[in-house]
Amino acid sequence: MASPLALxxxxxxxxxxxxxxxxxxxxxxxxxxxxxxxxxxxxxDVPDDLAVxxxxxxxxxxxxxxxxxxxxxxLGEDWAARTQARFVAAMKQGVEPIDGxxxxxxxxxxxxxxxxxxxxxxxxxxxxxxxxxxxxPYFEGRIHSARDMGIPKPRPDVYLHAAKEEQVAPxxxxxxxxxxxxxxxxxxxxxMCVLLRKAGEEVPDWPNLVVIHHLCEFAPLLKEALKAQGxxx
Length: 233
Hints:
This protein has eleven helices and eight strands. With 233 residues, it is an alpha/beta fold. The protein folds into two domains: 142 residues, Rossmann fold; 66 residues, Orthogonal Bundle (DNA polymerase, domain 1), CATH 1.10.150.
């Protein structure tokens, strides 16, 4: 019999795992625009205004596969590494935090919950993003890269690895995501997923998925779960 998930009254919430891009740091559009530039250089028609719709949530090997399939051209074995270097350079030039991220993280910390990050970005990229946004103190030594593992989302491995490192069961974890790719990874890991999605945007009809529209809604959701579990007054 499956264990109750972390937001249910009979569950046990112990670990919060954050995606990075679009959840903590507003770098999704920058990285997707760079990917679109690379796609156009190879002959794939992806205007900048469709970059996020086309590449959001995708790991670089998956983006490379799409471009190569669409163009019939090989981008070369070093394409992902070269494009990642462009990402890192762009992040060092400046990146903004997602609105409300500092208050949200402080509120989650006050709840006594452990936090980790699981992202399709490399550790090198995340380090650059967190340094630029002063988020490093929240996650130092607690970030996990699906790209560096070689097993990108929508595979669940990066989330399962984060839970294993924390020594908690997947059912005791909540993942905060903004992409369908990442949400699928979290759900397939056996975790509850909270999806950050703008009001009016399409949401997949999947089990174990809760939707919020702003980061200010996240900590209260966790607090209510902890109260229902008898762990907060």
